[in-house]
Amino acid sequence: NMSKFKAIILNQDGEKFTREVKEIDKSFLKHGNVVVKIDYSSLNYKDGMILKNGGKLVKEYPHIPGIDFAGTVEESESPNFKNGDKVILTGWRVGEIYFGGYAQYAKVQDNFLVKLPKDLDTKKAMILGTAGLTALMCVLIIQARETILKGEPIKDVLVTGATGGVGSVAVLALSKLGYIVSAVTGKKDKSEFLKSIGAKNIIDRSELDQEARPLDKALYDGVVDTVGGKILAKALSHTRPNGMVAACGLASSYKLDTTVMPFIIRGIKLWGVDSVTAPIIRRQFLWSQATTYVDFEKLSKGVSIWGLQDIISSSSKILKGDISGRVLVDVNK
User: Fold this and answer.
1) Nearest Cα to 275, choosing from 116, 79, 141, 78?
2) End-to-end CA distance of the chain, in Å?
3) Kind of pairing, strands 326-330 and 34-43?
4) Residues 6 or more apart from 326 whose CB is under 8 A from it?
5) How many Å apart are CA 212 and CA 182, to the nearest integer?
6) pLDDT along the chain (333 residues), means of 10
7) Are 128 and 70 in contact (CB under 8 A)?
Protein backbone atom coordinates (compact mmCIF):
# COMPACT_ATOMS: atom_id res chain seq x y z
CA ASN A 1 0.00 0.00 0.00
CA MET A 2 1.56 3.29 -1.16
CA SER A 3 -0.13 5.30 1.58
CA LYS A 4 2.09 3.71 4.24
CA PHE A 5 5.63 4.92 4.89
CA LYS A 6 8.40 4.85 7.47
CA ALA A 7 9.13 7.70 9.87
CA ILE A 8 10.85 8.31 13.17
CA ILE A 9 8.16 9.00 15.74
CA LEU A 10 8.99 10.76 19.00
CA ASN A 11 6.59 10.45 21.88
CA GLN A 12 6.43 11.89 25.36
CA ASP A 13 4.36 10.17 28.01
CA GLY A 14 4.89 11.81 31.40
CA GLU A 15 8.61 11.45 32.07
CA LYS A 16 9.04 8.75 29.43
CA PHE A 17 10.47 9.93 26.11
CA THR A 18 10.50 7.42 23.23
CA ARG A 19 11.87 7.38 19.70
CA GLU A 20 11.18 4.64 17.19
CA VAL A 21 10.91 3.96 13.48
CA LYS A 22 7.26 3.25 12.73
CA GLU A 23 5.17 2.61 9.68
CA ILE A 24 2.52 5.30 9.46
CA ASP A 25 -0.23 6.41 7.10
CA LYS A 26 -0.05 9.51 4.90
CA SER A 27 -3.17 10.80 6.66
CA PHE A 28 -0.92 11.28 9.73
CA LEU A 29 0.74 14.28 8.00
CA LYS A 30 -1.20 17.35 9.05
CA HIS A 31 0.61 20.54 8.03
CA GLY A 32 1.09 22.44 4.79
CA ASN A 33 -0.06 22.19 1.18
CA VAL A 34 2.78 20.34 -0.59
CA VAL A 35 3.60 16.63 -0.16
CA VAL A 36 7.23 15.73 -0.79
CA LYS A 37 8.65 12.25 -1.28
CA ILE A 38 11.94 12.50 0.59
CA ASP A 39 15.28 11.20 -0.71
CA TYR A 40 17.59 12.51 2.00
CA SER A 41 17.72 14.41 5.25
CA SER A 42 20.76 15.15 7.42
CA LEU A 43 21.88 15.28 11.04
CA ASN A 44 22.44 18.68 12.62
CA TYR A 45 23.22 19.79 16.18
CA LYS A 46 19.59 20.84 16.69
CA ASP A 47 18.43 17.40 15.53
CA GLY A 48 20.59 15.89 18.26
CA MET A 49 18.88 18.10 20.86
CA ILE A 50 15.40 17.22 19.60
CA LEU A 51 16.13 13.48 19.47
CA LYS A 52 17.53 13.51 22.98
CA ASN A 53 14.40 14.81 24.73
CA GLY A 54 12.62 17.27 22.46
CA GLY A 55 15.22 19.89 23.40
CA LYS A 56 12.44 22.23 24.67
CA LEU A 57 11.72 22.81 20.97
CA VAL A 58 8.97 20.28 20.27
CA LYS A 59 5.54 21.45 21.43
CA GLU A 60 3.29 18.49 20.54
CA TYR A 61 3.59 14.72 20.45
CA PRO A 62 3.60 12.33 18.65
CA HIS A 63 6.18 14.13 16.50
CA ILE A 64 8.30 13.51 13.39
CA PRO A 65 11.75 15.12 13.83
CA GLY A 66 14.34 16.14 11.19
CA ILE A 67 14.95 19.83 10.49
CA ASP A 68 15.79 19.47 6.81
CA PHE A 69 15.10 17.35 3.73
CA ALA A 70 15.32 17.20 -0.04
CA GLY A 71 13.13 15.27 -2.44
CA THR A 72 10.42 15.40 -5.12
CA VAL A 73 6.98 17.00 -5.00
CA GLU A 74 4.30 14.32 -5.21
CA GLU A 75 1.12 16.28 -4.45
CA SER A 76 0.70 20.05 -4.52
CA GLU A 77 -2.14 22.46 -3.76
CA SER A 78 0.26 25.34 -4.48
CA PRO A 79 0.52 27.22 -7.80
CA ASN A 80 4.29 27.51 -7.19
CA PHE A 81 5.10 23.79 -7.19
CA LYS A 82 4.05 20.96 -9.42
CA ASN A 83 4.48 17.19 -9.26
CA GLY A 84 8.02 16.20 -10.11
CA ASP A 85 9.65 19.43 -8.87
CA LYS A 86 12.82 18.76 -6.89
CA VAL A 87 12.85 20.77 -3.67
CA ILE A 88 14.95 21.58 -0.60
CA LEU A 89 13.67 22.44 2.84
CA THR A 90 15.71 23.78 5.75
CA GLY A 91 14.56 25.65 8.83
CA TRP A 92 11.19 27.37 9.35
CA ARG A 93 10.92 25.24 12.56
CA VAL A 94 10.08 22.13 10.55
CA GLY A 95 11.07 19.17 12.74
CA GLU A 96 10.22 21.32 15.77
CA ILE A 97 6.64 22.61 15.53
CA TYR A 98 5.92 20.99 12.16
CA PHE A 99 6.57 17.37 11.17
CA GLY A 100 10.05 17.03 9.71
CA GLY A 101 12.36 15.13 7.41
CA TYR A 102 13.15 11.88 9.25
CA ALA A 103 10.48 10.16 7.20
CA GLN A 104 9.86 8.96 3.67
CA TYR A 105 7.26 11.71 3.17
CA ALA A 106 6.70 15.22 4.46
CA LYS A 107 3.92 17.75 4.04
CA VAL A 108 4.87 21.41 4.36
CA GLN A 109 3.85 24.94 3.43
CA ASP A 110 4.93 25.93 -0.10
CA ASN A 111 6.65 29.11 1.13
CA PHE A 112 9.09 26.93 3.12
CA LEU A 113 10.45 25.26 -0.03
CA VAL A 114 13.28 26.18 -2.39
CA LYS A 115 13.52 24.65 -5.86
CA LEU A 116 16.67 22.59 -6.30
CA PRO A 117 19.11 24.40 -8.61
CA LYS A 118 20.08 22.61 -11.84
CA ASP A 119 23.69 21.97 -10.79
CA LEU A 120 22.75 20.23 -7.52
CA ASP A 121 21.03 16.95 -6.73
CA THR A 122 19.08 16.05 -3.59
CA LYS A 123 22.07 14.16 -2.19
CA LYS A 124 24.47 17.12 -2.49
CA ALA A 125 21.79 19.43 -1.09
CA MET A 126 21.55 17.34 2.08
CA ILE A 127 25.30 16.81 2.34
CA LEU A 128 25.11 20.56 2.96
CA GLY A 129 21.72 20.66 4.69
CA THR A 130 20.97 23.16 7.46
CA ALA A 131 24.57 23.10 8.68
CA GLY A 132 25.96 23.78 5.22
CA LEU A 133 23.48 26.56 4.49
CA THR A 134 24.37 28.18 7.84
CA ALA A 135 28.07 27.90 6.99
CA LEU A 136 27.52 29.59 3.63
CA MET A 137 25.64 32.43 5.35
CA CYS A 138 28.69 32.88 7.62
CA VAL A 139 31.03 32.90 4.63
CA LEU A 140 28.97 35.65 2.93
CA ILE A 141 29.27 37.73 6.11
CA ILE A 142 33.05 37.41 6.15
CA GLN A 143 33.14 38.33 2.46
CA ALA A 144 31.00 41.39 3.26
CA ARG A 145 34.13 43.07 4.58
CA GLU A 146 35.39 43.22 0.99
CA THR A 147 32.04 43.57 -0.78
CA ILE A 148 29.33 45.66 0.91
CA LEU A 149 31.70 47.22 3.45
CA LYS A 150 34.48 47.94 0.92
CA GLY A 151 37.19 47.03 3.40
CA GLU A 152 40.71 45.61 3.18
CA PRO A 153 41.13 42.17 1.60
CA ILE A 154 40.59 39.15 3.82
CA LYS A 155 43.58 36.93 4.49
CA ASP A 156 43.34 35.05 7.79
CA VAL A 157 40.14 33.44 9.02
CA LEU A 158 39.38 31.46 12.19
CA VAL A 159 36.75 28.70 12.36
CA THR A 160 35.72 27.31 15.77
CA GLY A 161 34.15 23.89 16.23
CA ALA A 162 35.82 23.16 12.92
CA THR A 163 35.11 19.42 12.72
CA GLY A 164 31.36 19.95 13.20
CA GLY A 165 28.83 20.21 10.39
CA VAL A 166 28.82 24.02 10.13
CA GLY A 167 32.54 24.28 10.90
CA SER A 168 33.70 21.75 8.33
CA VAL A 169 31.67 23.31 5.48
CA ALA A 170 32.96 26.76 6.51
CA VAL A 171 36.59 25.52 6.47
CA LEU A 172 36.05 24.05 3.02
CA ALA A 173 34.34 27.11 1.54
CA LEU A 174 36.72 29.67 3.06
CA SER A 175 39.79 27.77 1.86
CA LYS A 176 38.23 27.46 -1.63
CA LEU A 177 38.02 31.28 -1.64
CA GLY A 178 41.77 31.39 -1.04
CA TYR A 179 41.78 32.47 2.60
CA ILE A 180 44.22 31.06 5.15
CA VAL A 181 42.00 29.07 7.50
CA SER A 182 42.89 28.34 11.12
CA ALA A 183 40.68 25.57 12.48
CA VAL A 184 39.92 25.22 16.19
CA THR A 185 39.17 21.76 17.52
CA GLY A 186 39.26 19.82 20.76
CA LYS A 187 40.01 16.63 18.82
CA LYS A 188 43.73 15.96 18.44
CA ASP A 189 43.08 13.03 16.09
CA LYS A 190 41.16 15.16 13.57
CA SER A 191 43.95 17.40 12.26
CA GLU A 192 44.41 15.24 9.13
CA PHE A 193 40.69 15.49 8.38
CA LEU A 194 40.81 19.28 8.83
CA LYS A 195 43.84 19.63 6.57
CA SER A 196 42.17 17.47 3.92
CA ILE A 197 39.26 19.94 3.74
CA GLY A 198 41.53 22.97 3.52
CA ALA A 199 42.64 24.10 6.98
CA LYS A 200 46.21 25.51 7.04
CA ASN A 201 46.61 25.77 10.83
CA ILE A 202 45.11 23.61 13.56
CA ILE A 203 44.56 25.31 16.92
CA ASP A 204 43.85 23.34 20.07
CA ARG A 205 40.55 24.35 21.61
CA SER A 206 42.17 24.78 25.06
CA GLU A 207 44.15 27.78 23.75
CA LEU A 208 40.90 29.68 23.17
CA ASP A 209 38.71 28.21 25.89
CA GLN A 210 39.91 30.63 28.57
CA GLU A 211 39.23 34.07 29.98
CA ALA A 212 39.75 36.75 27.31
CA ARG A 213 41.49 40.08 27.71
CA PRO A 214 39.41 43.01 26.39
CA LEU A 215 41.82 43.25 23.44
CA ASP A 216 44.50 40.74 22.51
CA LYS A 217 46.90 40.28 19.63
CA ALA A 218 45.05 41.00 16.37
CA LEU A 219 45.29 37.83 14.27
CA TYR A 220 42.15 37.26 12.16
CA ASP A 221 40.23 39.24 9.55
CA GLY A 222 37.20 37.02 9.95
CA VAL A 223 35.80 34.43 12.34
CA VAL A 224 33.10 31.79 11.96
CA ASP A 225 32.08 30.81 15.48
CA THR A 226 29.87 27.79 16.04
CA VAL A 227 30.38 27.37 19.79
CA GLY A 228 29.79 30.62 21.72
CA GLY A 229 30.96 31.11 25.32
CA LYS A 230 34.57 31.86 26.23
CA ILE A 231 35.84 30.78 22.82
CA LEU A 232 33.78 33.46 21.06
CA ALA A 233 34.84 36.08 23.61
CA LYS A 234 38.49 35.16 23.03
CA ALA A 235 38.07 35.14 19.24
CA LEU A 236 36.61 38.67 19.43
CA SER A 237 39.70 39.89 21.30
CA HIS A 238 41.92 38.45 18.51
CA THR A 239 40.01 39.95 15.58
CA ARG A 240 41.81 42.55 13.46
CA PRO A 241 40.45 46.09 12.97
CA ASN A 242 37.23 46.09 10.91
CA GLY A 243 37.09 42.30 11.01
CA MET A 244 33.89 40.30 10.69
CA VAL A 245 32.75 37.74 13.26
CA ALA A 246 29.81 35.49 12.31
CA ALA A 247 28.21 33.78 15.33
CA CYS A 248 25.87 30.88 14.65
CA GLY A 249 26.10 28.34 17.46
CA LEU A 250 26.22 27.53 21.15
CA ALA A 251 27.85 24.10 21.31
CA SER A 252 30.10 25.37 24.13
CA SER A 253 27.79 27.89 25.82
CA TYR A 254 25.00 30.33 25.00
CA LYS A 255 26.61 32.92 27.29
CA LEU A 256 28.93 35.64 26.02
CA ASP A 257 31.08 37.62 28.44
CA THR A 258 32.84 40.33 26.48
CA THR A 259 33.53 44.08 26.45
CA VAL A 260 32.76 46.89 24.04
CA MET A 261 36.50 47.30 23.31
CA PRO A 262 36.74 45.14 20.16
CA PHE A 263 33.71 46.96 18.75
CA ILE A 264 34.63 50.57 19.51
CA ILE A 265 38.43 50.41 19.32
CA ARG A 266 38.81 47.97 16.44
CA GLY A 267 35.47 48.55 14.75
CA ILE A 268 34.80 44.85 14.39
CA LYS A 269 31.35 43.48 13.58
CA LEU A 270 29.66 40.66 15.47
CA TRP A 271 27.06 39.35 13.06
CA GLY A 272 24.47 36.85 14.28
CA VAL A 273 23.47 34.16 11.82
CA ASP A 274 20.10 32.46 11.83
CA SER A 275 19.30 30.12 8.99
CA VAL A 276 15.88 29.14 10.40
CA THR A 277 13.99 32.22 9.22
CA ALA A 278 16.36 33.40 6.46
CA PRO A 279 14.27 34.90 3.63
CA ILE A 280 13.57 32.73 0.59
CA ILE A 281 15.42 35.12 -1.73
CA ARG A 282 18.64 34.66 0.29
CA ARG A 283 18.15 30.88 0.43
CA GLN A 284 17.66 30.72 -3.33
CA PHE A 285 20.83 32.74 -3.82
CA LEU A 286 22.89 30.56 -1.44
CA TRP A 287 21.67 27.29 -2.96
CA SER A 288 22.36 28.66 -6.46
CA GLN A 289 25.93 29.49 -5.36
CA ALA A 290 26.56 26.22 -3.50
CA THR A 291 28.75 24.64 -6.17
CA THR A 292 30.78 27.87 -6.42
CA TYR A 293 31.56 27.81 -2.71
CA VAL A 294 31.82 24.09 -2.06
CA ASP A 295 34.07 21.42 -3.49
CA PHE A 296 31.67 18.49 -3.16
CA GLU A 297 34.34 15.94 -4.01
CA LYS A 298 36.37 17.07 -0.99
CA LEU A 299 33.32 17.42 1.22
CA SER A 300 31.90 13.99 0.44
CA LYS A 301 35.06 12.34 1.82
CA GLY A 302 33.94 13.45 5.28
CA VAL A 303 30.33 12.30 4.93
CA SER A 304 28.74 9.34 6.75
CA ILE A 305 25.48 7.87 5.41
CA TRP A 306 22.94 6.76 8.01
CA GLY A 307 19.45 5.30 7.86
CA LEU A 308 16.54 6.18 10.18
CA GLN A 309 17.50 3.40 12.61
CA ASP A 310 21.06 4.77 12.85
CA ILE A 311 19.64 8.18 13.79
CA ILE A 312 17.82 6.61 16.72
CA SER A 313 20.85 4.69 17.95
CA SER A 314 23.59 7.26 17.30
CA SER A 315 22.26 10.82 17.03
CA SER A 316 23.41 11.64 20.60
CA LYS A 317 27.02 11.53 19.35
CA ILE A 318 26.59 14.93 17.73
CA LEU A 319 25.92 16.54 21.12
CA LYS A 320 29.17 15.14 22.54
CA GLY A 321 31.15 16.34 19.53
CA ASP A 322 31.84 12.75 18.47
CA ILE A 323 30.98 13.29 14.81
CA SER A 324 33.25 14.96 12.29
CA GLY A 325 32.03 16.22 8.93
CA ARG A 326 28.43 15.75 7.86
CA VAL A 327 25.91 12.94 8.32
CA LEU A 328 23.66 12.33 5.32
CA VAL A 329 20.42 10.52 6.18
CA ASP A 330 19.05 8.14 3.57
CA VAL A 331 15.40 7.80 4.67
CA ASN A 332 14.88 4.83 2.35
CA LYS A 333 17.87 2.86 3.68
Assistant:
1) 141
2) 18
3) antiparallel
4) 42, 43, 127, 128, 129, 131, 132, 165, 168, 169, 299, 302, 303, 304
5) 19
6) 88 94 95 97 96 94 98 97 98 97 98 97 97 97 93 95 95 97 92 95 94 95 97 97 96 93 97 95 96 94 94 94 93 94
7) no
